[in-house]
């Protein structure tokens, strides 16, 4: 009997992490990036729910975070599918067909990671608002959420960069990649900047989240 497909959306945490632990590459780091974004969104929703029950900004943040949690899980599964195509391309026999398959799979995988990264960037403002205005008793959860969000941004940035670099296996230079895929190339720098911003936001509240470090 064929094993049921393991998906981020439809499997238990135990099932999904067991599949991630296998040397198959699907799910892999890209899908893990999506899962980290879902964790960040979930914590954002939780903190927002504790930060006001009379509508206003906390309610809007919570609504966006809950939608992002679901989208992040879907994007994780999309990335897992892209990873399958990526691996299949590199298993082909050397030749024009392999080169074209690598080009197509690399660009599609980079694009999938770029979308995930863009969603992660969009989530920063809401978490930043909670860091300043949210329930102060949950500041530790905000820092954990920043950690998960940074992991998502870092994962997306690295995967986009790696996938673009893989185009060299099909005979394309990095200068050509930058020219031909300028939007994806720019996404890497945007994600680098987002990591720096998250680091600054987390550092600004760390003294409240981890007061023992001040001694």
Order of helices and strands: HHHHHHHH
* Secondary-structure-derived class: mainly alpha
Q: What fold name stands as the CATH topology?
A: Four Helix Bundle (Hemerythrin (Met), subunit A)
Give the helix level as a range of percent: over 70%
Supply Rg.
Answer: 19 Å
- How many strand units? 0
Q: Please give the CATH architecture.
A: Up-down Bundle
Described by its quaternary structure, the protein is single chain
* Average pLDDT, all residues: 90
From the N-terminal CA to the C-terminal CA, the straight-line distance is: 59 Å
Would you identify the regions where 5 or more consecutive residues have pLDDT less than 50? none
Q: What's the domain count?
A: 1
Per CATH, the class reads Mainly Alpha
Q: Per the principal axes of the C-alpha atoms, what is the gross shape?
A: elongated
Strand content: under 5%
Q: What count of helical segments does DSSP give?
A: 8
Name the CATH homologous superfamily.
Formiminotetrahydrofolate cyclodeaminase monomer, up-and-down helical bundle
Q: How would you characterize the largest beta sheet?
A: none
Please sum up the structure shown.
This protein is an all-alpha fold and 215 residues long. The protein has helices at 13-21, 29-49, 56-90, 96-122, 124-133, 139-165, 174-180, 182-209. It has one domain (25-206): Formiminotetrahydrofolate cyclodeaminase monomer, up-and-down helical bundle (Four Helix Bundle (Hemerythrin (Met), subunit A)), CATH 1.20.120.680.
